[in-house]
Amino acid sequence: MAESRPEPRRWFRHGQLIQFIPLLSAGIVLIVLPVFLPSHLQIVMTKFLIFALFAISFDLIFGYAGLLSLGHAAYFGAGGYTVAVLMLRYDINSFWIGVLLGLFSAALVAALFGLIVLRVSGLYFLLLTFALGQLLYSVAWNWKWLNSPGMQGIAGLSFPDLGFLPVSWNNLNFYYFVLLFFALSYFILRKITNSPFGHALVGIREGEARMQSLGYHTWLYKYLAFVIAGTFAGLAGIFFAYHNRMIAPGHFGVTTSFLPMAMAIIGGSGTLFGPVIGAAMIVFVEYFASIVTPDRWPLILGSIFVLSIMYVRDGIGVYLSRLGKKVSYLWGKH
Predict the structure, then answer these.
(1) Which distant-in-sequence residues (6+ apart) come within 8 Å of 241 by Cβ?
(2) Three-class secondary structure of residue 92 per DSSP
(3) Are 26 and 18 in contact (CB under 8 A)?
(4) In the chain, where does DSSP find H-type helix?
(5) Pick from 37, 214, 299, 326: CA 20 to 30 A from residue 160's CA?
């Protein structure tokens, strides 16, 4: 009986506990740090969470399914425009109505676009997603019903009404509200990517013909991943509309679509936590660059992107993960 008992400090000896330290540390920082920050930095932290959610939604189709899209902003914009139109045209500021209709709109756009773009692959897939994203940009630009009077876009948005949960909104409260949904989204996407469905996506990315020979309906797997990713991108767009207090046609465009791609590549695609690191880099570097030299921010972003591809090709998150595994191994040996 004594021999069958687990040895004391087994987790420490095998280095299992140390793997949770980065996640635990990040959670503590995200929960505690904003309390001590000034209001304008709380706004930047909220923007980081929104784009981190946008980036991990993109990583589902890019990092796991191997689909490089330049139209991911279409679903981001669909979610944002839904809540904005509800406020502008129907005077509906209910978060619960807005989030349900926003998610439905983003999922519907992704479902329709998926039927079109998943007929092709490679460069043609990239160009087709770009074209469809620009199509929505053109619709938002030219259709007056989607614009406030005298401007392109919808401005004057406010924090959402939670109905039976009365909240006196401020920047800190809204930050924690977004953090809650970000954590839930990350948990759900982590479950999806670690499930047999997620493993099948990786198999399709590595060799679609081989997966087809094993009996997998690869088109259906990619289509489901495409719709799921679009839905979570729509959630990011919903929160962005509330946070930014406006939504514009450019949020459908290629510039917005480039951001999650850059975040995923810089942080490390196919990891989920990598795009979060990439989002932190881009959002906070943009903030400090806007203080020092705002006109040169595109040059700075391009330089970071090029340097990361040249010298950190697998992504910062992947290198940090490898370092963590080495530390865990060395800890386990002791």
Answers:
(1) 79, 80, 81, 83, 84, 157, 247
(2) coil
(3) no
(4) 10-14, 21-32, 39-59, 73-90, 95-117, 123-142, 171-193, 196-213, 218-244, 254-267, 273-292, 297-311, 316-333
(5) 37
Q: What is the DSSP letter of 94?
A: B
Q: The dihedral of CA 142, 146, 149, 155: what is its sign? A: negative
Token pair, residue 122, equals 């490679």
Q: Would you say 49 and 205 are in contact if contact means Cβ atoms under 8 Å apart?
A: no
**What mean pLDDT comes out for the span 146-151?**
89
pTM: 0.91
Instruction: Read off the amino acid at residue 217.
Output: H
- Tell me the C-alpha distance between 300 and 48, whole Å: 18
Sign for the pseudo-dihedral over CA of 90, 96, 102, 104: negative
Quickly state the pLDDT bin for 297 (edges 50, 70, 90).
confident
CA 202 to CA 193: how far, in whole Å? 9
At residue 8, what are phi and psi to the nearest 5 degrees? -65, 150
Rounded Cα–Cα distance for residues 102 and 79 (Å): 4
226 three-class SS: helix
